[in-house]
Specification:
By secondary structure, the protein is of the alpha/beta class. The protein contains 12 helices and 19 strands.
Length: about 375
């Protein structure tokens, strides 16, 4: 653990390299790897993560929004970048920065073709998203004839990949549903080849898909959460290393008498004498108000200290009655030896939400 005197998110690039190589070991040598770096690199440091992944040999990067892709281009990233959820208002910027859009509806495809026509562009690389059961974004199988005609009729676009997304690839109880999604994607692929003579590249698998449905690798796989150290099962978590460590310090220690309250709205009333520690981060930093009152805990000298009372905007109070510590001592929320999954579960959420919620005012420290 690096030395620090404030709330810090430590980002370990060696852990990222380990996770990348582990996930690569799960796919065939000819299968390309798309690394998902959206949401600030899952709450870490998008540019630092992208630069490391480019150096490691990732084939593609993926972001959610155009502005994320623009930031990567401005930082010098040259890898192909897929924008998963583009909006028409950003098409001109997307094209100017040579980003690849995922086109997912008639409105978006037609709008993008119009933008290309105005700029007199031809054979611009795009990817087409098909909805096979997630029911979030994508063309339905029934729209395939329209899609194929649009591809043939518009020389402005050149389809580099078609893609879909599994809805429950981590859930063994939904294995049949996932297989049905794969079968739908295969039908779409067959129709595409019959009509146009050849297929573009294809990708469908996310992190859990890489682990559980290796037969559906197609030409490329996508990984997000796995790169950041979480595999959606306890077994896979053991093989991965969380890249982010959220840590802070003890600002002040209080002695609380029986009957005294702690924090806003007197949400915690002590039934017996307690020792509490106040920490300098709160719901403005990403530790939301759903924690506290027995939900959530931190580690101080490797011992659990539960969060008590209400989480404040800039502070959290924890119970250190049984922990030998002092003001200024280090505190860990999550990291390689303190699972973000376990912390998130106490608040009835998932690691994705916890990781990506950490605000920009938390200092990022990137270590090799």
């Amino acid at each position: 653990m690096a030395k620090f005197g404030e709330t810090t998110l430590e980002i370990n690039l060696s852990a990222l390299s380990h996770n990348f190589q582990y996930l690569k070991s799960k796919i065939a040598s000819g299968t390309k790897f798309m690394a998902v770096v959206k949401a600030g690199g899952y709450g870490s440091d998008m540019v630092a993560i992208a630069q490391k992944l480019e150096a490691l040999g990732a084939d593609y990067l993926a972001v959610a929004y155009t502005k994320e892709g623009v930031a990567l281009r401005e930082a010098g990233i040259t890898l192909p970048i897929l924008v998963l959820h583009p909006q028409p208002i950003h098409f001109k910027s997307l094209i100017a920065h040579q980003l690849e859009p995922s086109l997912y509806s008639k409105r978006i495809l037609e709008g993008f073709v119009d933008a290309l026509k105005k700029l007199e562009k031809e054979s611009y690389p795009v990817q087409l998203k098909f909805n096979t059961g997630l029911n979030r974004l994508g063309f339905h199988e029934e729209e395939l004839d329209w899609v194929l005609n649009a591809v043939q009729s518009n020389p402005e676009i050149k389809v580099s990949y078609i893609l879909s997304h599994l809805a429950a690839s981590e859930d063994e109880n939904e294995r049949d549903f996932s297989q049905n999604q794969i079968d739908t994607f295969l039908r779409i692929s067959d129709r595409w080849k019959e009509t146009l003579g050849k297929l573009p590249g294809r990708h469908m698998l996310n992190t859990s898909g890489i682990i559980n449905f290796s037969s559906a690798q197609f030409d490329m796989v996508r990984s997000g959460i796995g790169l950041y150290g979480y595999g959606n099962t306890p077994e896979e978590d053991k093989a991965l290393i969380p890249i982010a460590r959220l840590q802070t310090v003890i600002s002040q220690i209080h002695q609380v008498s029986a009957g005294e309250s702690v924090g806003y709205n007197r949400a915690f009333i002590s039934e017996q004498p307690k020792t509490t520690a106040t920490l300098p981060l709160g719901h403005a930093d990403g530790i939301s108000r759903q924690y506290g009152q027995g939900k959530g805990y931190v580690y101080i000298h490797r011992q659990k200290a539960p969060i008590i009372g209400n989480v404040c905007m800039d502070m959290i109070i924890v119970d250190i009655t049984l922990i030998d510590c002092k003001e200024g001592d280090p505190v860990t929320f999550y990291g390689p030896n303190a699972s973000a999954d376990a912390f998130a579960a106490t608040g009835d959420t998932i690691s994705y939400e916890l990781l990506t919620a950490i605000s920009n005012r938390v200092t990022r420290v990137v270590v090799p």
